[in-house]
Amino acid sequence: MRIKKLPEGLINKIAAGEVVERPASVLKELIENSLDAQADTLQIAVEKGGKKLIEVRDNGTGIHPDDIMEAVSRFSTSKIDSFDDLYCITTYGFRGEALASISAVSRFSLITRQKEFPLGKELFVEGGVFRHLSDTGASVGTAVRVRDLFFNLPVRERFLKSERTELNHIMDVFFRYAIYHSDKRFSLTVDGKQIYTLLPENTEERIKRLFPKVEQLISFEWENQLGRVSGYYSPDYQSGKGFIYINGRPVKNSMLKKIISSKLGNSFYVIFLELPPYSVDFNIHPSKIDVKFRKDRPVYELVKTALEKSGKPQVFYSLSQPSVKYGGEFKILGQIENTFIVVYYNGEVYFIDQHVASERINYELLLKKYRSGGIDSEAISPVKLKLDKLQQEKFEQLSSVFKNAGFDFKLKDGTLYITAVPVYARGRDIKKFVLNLINSEYPEVEIESFLGELACELSVEAGDILHDEEAKSLLKLWLETDNPNLCPHGRPIYYKIPVEQIKKKVGRR
Ligand SMILES: Nc1ncnc2c1ncn2[C@@H]1O[C@H](COP(=O)(O)OP(=O)(O)O)[C@@H](O)[C@H]1O
Ligand SMILES: [Mg+2]
Questions:
Q1: Domain residue limits, the chain
Q2: Relative orientation angle of helices 296-308 and 254-264, to the nearest 10 degrees
Q3: How far is the CA of 143 from the centre of ligand 1 (A)?
Q4: Can you tell me the distance from the alpha carbon of 264 to that of 486, in angstroms, rounded to the nearest whole number?
Q5: The whole model's pTM is what?
């Protein structure tokens, strides 16, 4: 066979596979185009999980009547001129292939009007084949309707998941953009039913509207020479859900996700990173959702620090201010089940998990010591500990973090001789203490996760009886921590009930 150029229709069909994976990827491209066109109102409709219909109407700039055919041909974009532009992209789109790909694998229609023109244009393309282009009455902006996705690629169509799963992906895309663009109006209609109508609001309001289970949102912010991190998390909503943005783009990055959940556990979060454009590469994936960092370590460190220092809960904040007398409005009601300290403060009743609070205190103490010259250690008369094969292997991986945390030891013929321990371990059952540390699960062998476990070992247990004075001093230390909301593993430290809510429940006004 001789070499020949593939017909454009076929090229588009092949390329479509890269950009268009499923209905949600179509929605993503259409939303991005609307936002790039400066729309501030986006009306979205889907049917049958997007398999039957995906529609986005916007009030953006519209497309010039002479450019309409260009819009659906490959590598046509109004967004960049030169290669250098690739490094300072401020629009979502730039590859100029989304509409070409989408229209190659669907029944595609586009209606658009720019404000300078009295009439709009309507274009119809079916499976990459041009059907018609005509004048039409239209409001300013663009409406794209994508029907019967993959109708001409039955194999791809068969690989789509259930309507429900596809709809979940669609919701995820909708949330990603609706959260970031809280200053814009969005509506979402699913199978004829309008399920969201969002008016301009601030980010917090938008998050709470989209995720009603979020009651309290804790904000955080951190900055260094590399960049800036800010965002929110909610210990109320233990969903494992999270949204990450880099320079305004929603992204996925499994390592970042892992780091965040090692700090926040399953708490819901939204996190915004701002990094210099040259340090991030969005171009690795045609649909630009995965990112790569030129240097990833510093980015991870930045995020870690931000989360470690994340904000104190606003309600308690005034307590650490010198003007408010400790013990004033802050009333310790008692301890229940030897597990929770119960406190009344400012119209709310707090149930504070004493073990988790104590873990947070010890963790921060250890971390501070470690970072400022090291954790003091204390020589002891050698304690002998026999390790089985598995424990030996594990211990070998952990030996350097053990050293850094103030332990000293020798391992000989499967027996561990412990000769020094961190001063905080004074008076403990060293054998049990060290065994627990060896047997713990570590998300990564790093000093921070080790100190997390060490803190846990040093902490007040659930079941320990606390006297008033002990409870008071625990509370005081806890309020002074950098992050009183979550334990080092990401578990929430307290649960609170507004007295208002209690009144409502018992019918008191
Ligand atoms: N909703 C819209 N409003 C205005 N112009 C649009 C819209 N959607 C697409 N366009 C125009 O069509 C072009 C091609 O879109 P697309 O294939 O998504 O490529 P890209 O977004 O990478 O430029 C865009 O550059 C833009 O000029
Ligand atoms: Mg685009």
A1: 8-202, 211-308, 331-494
A2: 20
A3: 12
A4: 7
A5: 0.75
> What pLDDT, on a 0 to 100 scale, did the predictor assign at position 84?
60
The length of the chain in residues reads 509
pLDDT of residue 326: 40
Degrees, nearest 5: CA angle 83-88-90: 115
- The Å distance, Cα 187 to ligand 2 centre, comes to 20
- The preferred substitution site among 94, 95, 99, 177 for testing ligand 1, maximizing ligand atoms within 8 Å of CB, is 99
Which atom of ligand 1 lies nearest, measured to the CA of 60?
Answer: 3
SS3 content of the chain, % helix, strand, coil (to 5): 40, 30, 35
Please identify, by atom number, the ligand 1 atom nearest to the C-alpha of residue 97.
Answer: 17
At residue 294, the pLDDT reads: 83
Query: pLDDT at position 89, please?
Result: 64
Closest CA to 63 of 105, 116, 125, 102: 116
Q: Which of 33, 69, 121 to mutate to test the pocket of ligand 1 (most atoms within 8 A of CB)?
A: 33
Name 44's bridge partners: 56, 188
Which of 502, 93, 47 is closest to 283 using CA atoms? 93
CA distances from 127 to 63, 65, 134, 286, 428 (A): 22, 22, 19, 21, 73
Residues of the chain short of pLDDT 50, as ranges, are 312-327
Instruction: Name the one residue in this structure whose structure tokens are 């873990």.
Output: 359
Q: What is the pLDDT of residues 97-116, one digit of tens each?
A: 899 999 999 999 999 999 99
How does 62-72 read in b/e, with b if 16+ C-beta sit within 10 Å? Answer: bbebeebeebb
Query: Token digits for 415?
Result: 């027996």
CATH fold of 211-308 reads: Ribosomal Protein S5; domain 2 (3.30.230)
CATH code, 8-202? 3.30.565.10
Q: Is the CB of 142 under 6 A from ligand 1?
A: yes
Bridging pattern class, strands 249-251 and 218-223? unpaired
Give me the pLDDT at residue 184, please. 98
What would the CATH number be for the domain defined by 331-494?
Answer: 3.30.1540.20
- In short, whether 60's Cβ falls inside 6 Å of ligand 1 is yes
Per-residue pLDDT at 288: 60
